[in-house]
Amino acid sequence: MTKPFHLFFSLIIIIILPTIIHSQSQSAPNDAAVMQALKTNLTPKSLDWSDPNPCNWKQIQCSRDNRVTWIQLRNQNLQGTLPRTLNTLTELQVLELQNNQLTGPLPSLSGLTQLQILLLSYNNFTSIPSGFFTGMSSLKHVYLDYVTFSSWVLPETLKSASSLQVFSATSANITGTIPDFFGGDYFSKLTTLHLGFNSLEGGLPNSFFGSSIQSLRLNGQNSRSKLNGTLDVLESMIQLTEVWLHGNMFTGTLPDFSALNDLQTFSVRDNSLIGPVPESLTELRSLKVVNLTNNMFQGPKPSFGKSVEVDISGRNSFCLPDPGVGCDDRVNKLLAVVESVGYPQVFAENWKGNDPCEPWLGIKCSASGNITVVNLQGMGLTGCISPDFAAIKSLQRLLLADNNLSGMIPDELKDLPILIELDVSYNQLYGRVPEFKQSVKVRTDGNVDIEKDGPSTTPVSPAGGQKGGDRGGGGKTGVVVGLVVGGLVVVAGVCVLYTRKRKRASGVHPRHSTSDGDGVKITVAGSSTTGGPSDIHVVEAGNMVISIQVLRDVTNNFSQDNILGKGGFGTVYKGELHDGTKIAVKRMESGVMSEKGLDEFKSEIAVLTKVKT
Ligand SMILES: *[C@@H]1O[C@H](CO)[C@@H](O)[C@H](O)[C@H]1NC(C)=O
Ligand SMILES: *[C@@H]1O[C@H](CO)[C@@H](O)[C@H](O)[C@H]1NC(C)=O
Ligand SMILES: *[C@@H]1O[C@H](CO)[C@@H](O)[C@H](O)[C@H]1NC(C)=O
Ligand SMILES: *[C@@H]1O[C@H](CO)[C@@H](O)[C@H](O)[C@H]1NC(C)=O
Ligand SMILES: *[C@@H]1O[C@H](CO)[C@@H](O)[C@H](O)[C@H]1NC(C)=O
Ligand SMILES: *[C@@H]1O[C@H](CO)[C@@H](O)[C@H](O)[C@H]1NC(C)=O
């Protein structure tokens, strides 16, 4: 009979044990005091909080050692303020107070190292202290939506919440910029970032590069300048499923979506986006909802799959109203030539419809409807002269004076059959002028470096002659090189194509080596901002000077097969130098590259370096 007895006994234990703990336990004295203060402040009428032991209160849970772990008071119509001592409930894991009418300042919760869930949405708190998030290293879910705070900025202390998965603060009166720590560096598990309807300004932070964010809502900022800048960084955020950026002032072209295979919702209506809608978006299989209404997109109206809910009404500059119908050949050619200057807004605003001979701004045509004059003088164009001008065979006058065009004059232009005038004076062009026919009047004055042959100051050794022996780690060394193509920059993106024709040999010249950690060399793109034509040919990568020609060679002319990945500002290619050094080349083709942009790019390279190691 011993067996059944044992069985019975152990059953009893299992059932009784929790009861014993509950009825005999008293919450830890300090926790009890805090809970009493909470009770006094909130006077919850609908809940039975009469027991002297808060661990027995409704909606409260304690640990076995009587510490308060859960407070779940949502939808209780509670009024009043939270006690300042709340952050002494150091075992608290869950704090749910959403949808009440709590007022007064939110006390600091700094030090609640166990808190995982913080739900405070829909309340009337008046302020949030800047040290609020200090030390909350377990925090996973934060909801502060529709809290009537006075304005606040997202504090640096939020960085300590390294377990963060969801941060949602829609309409919470947040001002300032999106801090540059919302990304993999600090929040490797972040999947949801909802900051719509605040007063944020500035651009998408560089830290978004490669982040794990899936749902990104930054729509409808109320600040005067709203969120601005380009969407380039999105192309590296390959986990994205939902993107709400509508109602801001984003500019530039849409990025490359080919790596965003999970993207379902893409809403960028009511911005100032330009250029054609890329096929990488229209061809995305995962796409379900897309809203492009009220931008300045150009080119053919995009055609999405049947199952995609599309809104592209309102202001846009598509050539034709019907989706998927190609533009007039002349329109395509003109859009091609403004690509290399980043599709300036002036053309998005003035080149409408499908007939450039209407005429469009800067365009003149013959009676037969052929483009004869392209006059883009003094339009503040930055970038390079597109070789695609050569496709406009009817062109007689190409006038590009008084801009900020850099790079070389494309050789292709000399093939224009009936060209009579080319005026590129007062730009920042350099290099050899193609040999135009006698009949062509060519003006190149006001370009300081015209007819000068590339970099004069930078030491460059002959092709393949990288004196690699003095480089630490030799062939095993990994180098991350950022090829800055643009401002400098854009320029090189296209203009660099023409450096190939240059006779001067190019190569790699390591100056001295620095090794970071385990033999991985870290270099930062350093096509310097000091200007000068040398930038276009040569990338100074930390301690190396590498000619773009070499980068071109080792990446197999930036071939598809060499693509390692796509980043916020361009595509990363792998390559191997002659001495076996493996390099990653990041080719940036964003529009105008400001100094700040260059800094961001550099820090991105730094991030990239970390990732690769
Ligand atoms: C809380 O805010 C809501 C909406 O702003 C308002 O209707 C309500 O009266 C406020 N309650 C208190 C107690 O201030
Ligand atoms: C945001 O905060 C400012 C003051 O900090 C206040 O004047 C304004 O009313 C708040 N806005 C909202 C929508 O609550
Ligand atoms: C974005 O807006 C800020 C002001 O909030 C301004 O200083 C900055 O120049 C703008 N950037 C761009 C790229 O327009
Ligand atoms: C797209 O944007 C327009 C204009 O802002 C809006 O009226 C429409 O409801 C949106 N469509 C979708 C499918 O979200
Ligand atoms: C000019 O237009 C006519 C027809 O409109 C076309 O046949 C001819 O090839 C064009 N000329 C050039 C130089 O493009
Ligand atoms: C051309 O670019 C330089 C810097 O690259 C800038 O200082 C200058 O203001 C620009 N000029 C025009 C006309 O945009």
Q: How is this structure best described in words?
A:
The chain is α/β, with parallel strands linked by helices and 613 residues long. Among the domains are: 174-326, Alpha-Beta Horseshoe (Leucine-rich repeat, LRR (right-handed beta-alpha superhelix)); 329-450, Ribonuclease Inhibitor (Leucine-rich repeat, LRR (right-handed beta-alpha superhelix)); 483-608, Phosphorylase Kinase, domain 1. The chain contains nine helices and 39 strands. The strands form eight sheets. Strands 1-2-4-6-7-9-11-13-15-17-19-21 form a twelve-stranded mixed β-sheet, with no helix packed on it. Strand 23 (363-365) and strand 24 (371-375) form a beta hairpin. The termini are far apart. The chain binds 2-acetamido-2-deoxy-beta-D-glucopyranose (6 copies). One 2-acetamido-2-deoxy-beta-D-glucopyranose (NAG) binds next to loops.
